[in-house]
Design a protein that fits this description.
The protein is an alpha/beta fold. It has helices at about 1-15, 180-185, 195-205, 215, 230-245, 250-270, 280-300, 315-330, 335-360, 365-389, and strands at about 30-35, 55, 60-65, 65-70, 75, 85, 90-95, 95-100, 105, 130, 135-140, 150-155, 170, 225.
Length: about 400
């Protein structure tokens, strides 16, 4: 097993260094294991970063002797237009679990009948189609900001995003599926190897202990990214979930998003000074800062300061605004600076409500009630502008 894995690492390294993206790749078993891969984790697809990206679902890879590790789902650019991604999958046969690597091709081949969600429901792909050299996204299953990406359509006949069956392998004890005629035809077409970005993406996951099932017990530290190296989405997704659940207050969210906004400004400045790239030193610095923000997100979500809005019209309005902000963060419709500004308004409204209640014996009079509603109306219009601007 060690010799097989070393050979695979060598092949991956050579592939990453080689510029020939049109090389033929095999669809056979590339590595095997004697224990089943864990169930697929449940996650929210990050927003598509822009035109031309195609979603590649996350999967469990294997490293001997450490076992399975999760490679996050990620939006990537194909080697050239017209190609679609056939996801990797595990198959059980002859007493072992064999790994079938993913590949690019003109059609989607067999991927074990595994329901990865977001257009990969077990057979084919419903997340989008090529129209010449333009990829059109099916917003029924793909998380796309239509204010930025306009080449979209809606087809609600495809399987919903939610992965109901989390089984991660084909064969006895797993998904019982066999290739259909179209999939067999696609398997015999000329295939294109994963891009160097995809290989780097898997290699990075293999070096992160939080991605290994032996450490995370089936709940990886990072389940999805908006692009290779895109840890930024993971942070924003965690913040959005904290806002939705009430574990992050408006004040906590404002501080976190201000830190994210400042880091984004720093990254843009570094890229501008280095022809659009980050040096290794700059990448290390960004990673350290993201680690500190990540720790703060965890601490804020697990302290005793939770958002409580009350079962009343004012409380319902406050809760609704928070859900709109969370959705804007989650879908990429609000950047970190916009989210910080929106939460600053909500924090100020919350302060006004507390002061008014204290001055009025715990309740709001009619004038105060109307004033809060006017403030929330202005805040609501700001949220709408930022999410749709």
């Amino acid at each position: 097993m060690k010799r097989i894995f070393r050979n695979m690492v060598l092949i991956a390294g050579l592939a990453a260094a080689a510029p020939q993206v049109n090389a033929q790749v095999s669809v056979g078993i590339s590595i095997s294991a004697h224990i089943a891969p864990p169930a697929l984790p449940v996650y929210t697809q990050p927003v598509c970063p822009g035109d031309g990206y195609i979603w590649t679902p996350g999967y469990w890879a294997y490293a001997d002797p450490d076992g399975y590790y999760w490679v996050p789902g990620v939006w990537v650019r194909p080697p050239h237009f017209g190609l679609l991604w056939t996801p990797a999958y595990w198959g059980f046969e002859g007493g072992v679990y064999g790994f079938h690597a993913g590949y690019w091709g003109p059609h989607v081949g067999f991927y074990g009948g595994i329901n990865y969600g977001y257009g990969y429901g077990g057979a084919g792909f419903g997340g989008g189609i090529w129209a010449g050299n333009v990829f059109r996204y099916n917003t029924a299953v793909a998380n796309v900001n239509t204010t930025i990406v306009h080449n979209t359509y809606v087809n609600n006949t495809v399987i919903n995003n939610t992965t109901i069956n989390r089984t991660s392998f084909n064969g006895q004890g797993g998904v019982n599926a066999r290739p259909n005629e179209q999939e067999r035809s696609a398997m015999n077409e000329r295939h294109v190897q994963p891009t160097s970005n995809q290989l780097d993406h898997e290699r990075t996951a293999s070096h992160d202990r939080s991605q290994f099932a032996s450490t995370n017990h089936g709940v990886p530290g990072t389940v999805a990214m908006n692009r290779v190296g895109g840890r930024h989405f993971d942070q924003q997704g965690r913040i959005a979930n904290g806002v939705s659940s009430g574990k992050l207050t408006a004040g906590e969210t404002k501080k976190l998003e201000n830190r994210e906004a400042n880091l984004n400004k720093e990254v843009r400045a570094d890229r501008a000074n280095n022809d659009g790239h980050l040096t290794n030193q700059e990448k290390s610095q960004v990673n350290r800062q993201q680690n500190r923000i990540s720790n703060s997100i965890y601490a804020d979500k697990h302290n005793n300061s939770n958002a409580h809005y009350g079962d009343n019209p004012i409380g319902d309005r406050r809760a609704n605004q928070q859900q709109r902000i969370a959705q804007g963060i989650r879908n990429g419709q609000m950047n970190a600076g916009e989210a910080a500004s929106a939460e600053n308004r909500q924090q100020n409204i919350n302060r006004t409500i507390r002061a008014d209640r204290q001055a009025s014996g715990g309740s709001l009079n009619r004038q105060q009630f109307r004033q809060v509603y006017r403030q929330q109306n202005r805040a609501g219009r700001q949220i709408s502008r930022q999410r749709h601007g």
